[in-house]
Amino acid sequence: MAEADIDDLIEIIEKEGNVEEIPKVIPMMPVRDVVVFTDMLLPLFVGREKSIKAIEECVEFDRYVFLSVQKDSEMEKPGPSDVYDIGTIARVQKMIKMPDGRIKALVQGISKAKLIEFVQKRSFFKVRVETIFDVEPDSIDIEIEALMRNVKENSEKLLALKGEFSGDVGDLLSHIDSPGKLADLVASNLNLKVEDAQGLLETTDAVERLTRVNDLLARELDLSTVQAKIQTHVKDEISKNQRDYYLREQVKAIHRELGESDDKIAEIAEFKQKIKKCKLPEACEKEALKQLTRLEQMHFDSSEASVVRTYLDCIVELPWSKTTKDFLDIKKAQEVLDQNHYGLDKAKERILEYLSVRKLNPNKKGQIICFVGPPGVGKTSLGRAIAKAMKRKFHRVSLGGIRDEAEIRGHRRTYIGAMPGRILQGLRQCGTNNPVFMLDEIDKLGNDFRGDPSSALLEALDPEQNSEFSDHYLNMPFDLSGVLFVLTANMADTIPSALLDRMELIHLTGYTRQEKVVIAKQHLLPRKIKDNGLTRRAINFSPNAIESIVSEYTLEAGLRELERKLDSVCRKIARQIAEGQKGRFAVTCQNLTRYLGPPQYINEMDQEESQVGLATGLAWTEVGGEHLYIETSLFPGKGELLLTGQIGEVMQESARAALTYTKANQEELGIDKEAFDSNDIHIHVPAGAIPKDGPSAGIAIATALVSAFTGKKVNNKVGMTGEISLRGRVLPIGGLKEKSLGALRAGIKTVIIPEKNKKDLHDIPKSVKSKLTFICVKDVREVLDLALEAE
Ligand code: ADP
Q: In this structure, which residue's CA is closest to atom 16 in ligand 1?
């Protein structure tokens, strides 16, 4: 700096007894982001070329520099209008040149000053300044005192919050008695925004400045309190995570120490993923995850762990949310049904109605369908066809002989080897929760001390309650409402009544010979040919041969035996071809014995002639209708009645009633009264190994008895069915369709039926009606007139 007029250029400031002489024109350095307050000591890093020059210049002379904050801190080369007018005169206490060319300068604020003019702008700024003096209050009144105390306390608090408080600071604060100094000291330590700090700097009134500092301090204190809170929370969170991680690592180490591998960890993770994928109802998922946690805590190979593992396997394999989309094209469904089944019009019609309703109202709670009929009439295959038509999966479970409720509903998990019930097992196998589920032989369900399976079944089948079916093993509700249950039974009588109540029976009664021949041709034979690896060209089945198989090798209502016989023929031909024989194999009536041996059932009636004491009854059995011979013999004795042939109680009573009727009407019937006392009577129903019972043999027994006593033959082409009353009335019977099919098979021409069964003739197929003569009767006399031949 050039030497100048001393009076003009030197400002004198009294500072704590010291006198500072500061030139009025000094170098100026713009600073960013920091306001230097009076008495504040602060290091500055100087990098800009102009600033470096300014510092170097001032250090060379009086060490004074005017520091003024630039308005935009981003600005690289601020001009005169880019800095605030009010700044601070500072003294450079120390200066160090850094290796990178920058300068580190330790500056101390000396006095507030106002920039009057720029004296030099090139190279570095030089400015004329004028000191500004603070206005301190004349005396410290109580209000100022309180304000000062407040500021001091809050400062201590703030420092304490930041963990920077020390006794020295406390001392320092307590010794300050000037509001202006206190304001500057606190402000310089507050990390204020530049605008706020500059505002303070420009406030010359000490009390006002302190008030503003107090406000800023309070705000800072609030901020810091919240910040501290957040930080504590974060710290807690981190330390909890760290703790958990540490513990988990320890558990892993313990598992490893116990010989448990990473497999377990992988298994647990896999289970967790599978459980999430299952989309279980919320409560069930919670339970599953609970069990998973239990598994996690168990020894990998313990038996307990394997129980839990099996349980979890069961849960994740159940189709909780897997559903197939229903295909409900009624025309196509009809095609599928017709393709697979000949006849069965009623059953097909009912199925199509069911599908139609389902199409129009998918939410209708379905009726349960039950097919009733003898074996082999197509109950199961109809069920399969329904599934095929709707494009659903099919599953079949046989309930024959099931006595234990647990078979349906599962065992509780406390039992060793416990399993879910058959219904859930079935669904697990299907993999969807809306299959066609067939429950076979519902009429053979047992019921004893081990529980009543029918009540468990009821819960599964009843559309009102099956959306929350509870299996003992699973121990959580499973929704069965999407499942289409189809039941089958051989007879409706033994179906538990509670179940019967809820289902719709569709009767399939068995096939006539003609129907069987058509089914064999259209369905069974092509299938058997294919199954046995043959081609249609390799085998030529004559229609007569099929008819022979039906009539001479099978005697059944259904088609099973017929299917087996056809299979047997195809198998034998397959063997011949496999052995190298060539050509087309013809199966005819003549060579049928080669394949199937001699005929097993003679087409004609077993009894070729009419005989005395032998009547033909018609019986209904589970496997369809059958004819039943009733033999009666008289031999000298005392009038005793002997019944043989495993006749059940009902039939024995029928026999007694028939005998009483005969005795009571002996005169009209032309029987000598003596005959009853001097003869023992033996009634026998052949095929004694098969138990027989039922209330429909009465008139046949009466006819056989009267025939035996009168010596008149019973026409062997007449079959009869009907119960007898003591007065000789003929009472109605059931199962007429099956019985007439049985009669037809047995070669009977005339069938005597009770008058009250006339209405049932409507259900008899035309082909049967055309071959049989049905005669309805009210009284046994009519039966005797029709059946007994004149002598
Ligand atoms: P069920 O379940 O009544 O004992 P199935 O359904 O097992 O009888 O039927 C036995 C066999 O007879 C099956 O191979 C089936 O395809 C066949 N079958 C039954 N009824 C018919 C029919 N109306 N048309 C074609 N095949 C039939």
A: 381
Amino acid of residue 44: L
pLDDT for residue 272 is more than 50: yes
375 Cα–ligand 1 center, Å: 9
Asked whether the predicted pLDDT for residue 6 surpasses 60, the reply is no
Report the candidate in 459, 315, 437, 421 with the shortest Cα–Cα distance to residue 384: 437
> From start to end of 565-701, where are the E strands?
585-587, 611-612, 614-621, 624-636, 641-644, 679-684
Segment 324-337 mean pLDDT: 88
Q: How far apart are CA 461 and CA 456, in angstroms?
A: 9
Using a 6 Å CB cutoff, which residues line ligand 1? Answer: 341-344, 375-381, 488, 519, 523, 559-560, 563
In sequence order, which residues have a C-beta less than 8 Å from that of residue 247 and are 6 or more positions away? none
Element (H, E) at 7: helix 6-9
Confidence at 149, pLDDT banded by 50, 70, 90: very high
Going from the Cα of 632 to the center of ligand 1, the distance in angstroms, rounded, reads 39
Pick the closest to residue 77 from 128, 25, 125 (CA basis): 125
Residue 492: CA atoms inside 13 Å, Cβ hemisphere, count?
Answer: 16
Q: Which residues contact 709 (CB under 8 A, 6 or more apart)?
A: 634, 662, 666, 669, 671, 675
Helix (H, G, I), strand (E, B) or coil at 193: coil
Residue with tokens 């993770």: 269
CA distances from 717 to 436, 774, 789 (A): 46, 12, 11
Q: Which atom of ligand 1 is nearest to the CA of 371?
A: 3
Sort strands 611-612 and 713-714 into parallel, antiparallel or unpaired: antiparallel
Report which residue type is found at 15: K
Report yes or no: 68 and 115 within 8 Å, Cβ to Cβ.
yes
Report the pLDDT averaged over residues 164-172: 73
Atom of ligand 1 nearest to the CA of 527: 14
Q: Is 406 left (phi over 0), alpha (psi -120 to 50) or beta?
A: alpha
